User: Which sequence fits this backbone?
């Protein structure tokens, strides 16, 4: 089951490292984006969900008392309650084995139709809600903790 920890912003990776030392499976999904900066394009790595760390574990009172004293942990989302089973599959894809989600490639034809041709998004097109060719992004939505989150993935578009 996947549980969500709310954390202080900027502390996500430190908290993940402490949880891993405690043998608790923790993930902080990150992605590679291309941003327009200083009249050029720059690759950056950003968090998909700032302020959240995801745990893949079985919840218990003992686990709660191991996690709660860690500096930067605010609370468990819910009572604590795991994310819904319908969201688990997509969330596991976002974990990407703890690695950064790399930029993908896509082709845009003359009619504006976008086809993902390479990278992490291949085979995951059903999750994409919007392509933004100008900003070199693809968007998806996921709900956890009762809140809908829009997430962006980096995509390098090639015009045919």
Assistant:
């Amino acid at each position: 089951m996947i549980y969500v920890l709310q954390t202080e912003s900027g502390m996500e990776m430190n908290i993940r490292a402490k949880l891993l030392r405690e043998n608790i499976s923790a993930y902080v999904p990150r992605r590679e984006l291309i941003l327009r900066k200083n009249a050029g394009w720059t690759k950056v790595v950003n968090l998909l969900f700032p302020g959240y760390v995801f745990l893949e574990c079985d919840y218990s009172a003992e686990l709660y008392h191991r996690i709660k004293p860690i500096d930067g942990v605010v609370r468990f989302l819910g009572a604590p309650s795991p994310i819904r089973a319908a969201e688990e599959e997509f969330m596991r894809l976002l974990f990407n084995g703890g690695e950064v989600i790399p930029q993908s490639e896509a082709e845009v034809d003359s009619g504006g139709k976008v086809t993902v041709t390479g990278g992490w998004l291949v085979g995951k097109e059903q999750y994409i809600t919007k392509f933004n060719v100008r900003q070199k992004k693809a968007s998806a939505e996921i709900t956890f903790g009762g809140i809908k989150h829009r997430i962006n993935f980096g995509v390098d578009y090639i015009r045919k």
